[in-house]
Structure formats: C-alpha cells, structure tokens
Amino acid sequence: DVFASPSTEAVLAGIKASSGATGCLVIVMNYTGDRLNFGIAVEKAKKAGIPCRMLMVKDDVAIENALQPRGIAGTVFVNKVAGAAAERGYSLDKVYEIASAAAENVFSVGMSMTVCAIPGSAPGDRLHGDLVEYGLGIHGEPG
Asked: In whole angstroms, what is the distance from residue 77 CA to residue 82 CA?
C-alpha cells in the first residue's frame, strides 16, 4: 500500500543510519500506523544503546475538538526548528524541548482543488469545477 507507514525495521534502519553520538529525535506525524511502527523502532533503538526521543506532531485543526489531530504540513516547520537546534549543537533533550514547543504552536488545515490519485488508479471525481475540499490529510484523504 503506497500510503502505509514504513515498517518498524525500515524506521530502525533509518535511526541507526542517521544517529550520531548525541542520538536521534524522531519526529512523527500523528497517524496510527506511524505511532505504532515509529514508536516500536524508537524503543528498539533505545535498547540498542542509541539515545532516542520521539515527538508526535498533531497540527491539523480541520476537525474541531479531534481527540487525535493528524500531523500534516506543520510537521515541516517542526523539522526545520529541530534541525536548526541540532545544528547549533544542543543536546537531544534540548532539541526535543525546542521542537516540542514548535509542535505545540503550529496549526494547519489541508485543502485541495483536486483529488488524490493513487498510482495505477484513475483519480476520483468528487471535486468538479471551482470546488475545493477542506480538511484533507497528507495523502489527499478526506477529513
């Protein structure tokens, strides 16, 4: 499935390949499969001796009072803030603290003028003319 979360093994391989002595901050968009697979990978990394923290981004405000807001475009800004903090040489805990503050203060709404086209499939037809759709997720799925 093109929209499936990466496997725990793939995430763990990424953590191992990218972690330096100071460790790794794993920034995750709040989707069920990602929470599960990235969370397990982070725990495995810790057991392997890699300093690791996970930060969940929940910036989608399209669904009022959502119990588990999705992570969407605001994740880009959280990544940029975390990268800038890491580049300055801050500790993993300090980078996590700064990135968490960014994640708590970024809000996004997904909108589209066209529908998602799954590779190898015909695009859907729920939008016509000058209509836009409000509340889309990162894959173009309805809110």
From this structure: 9
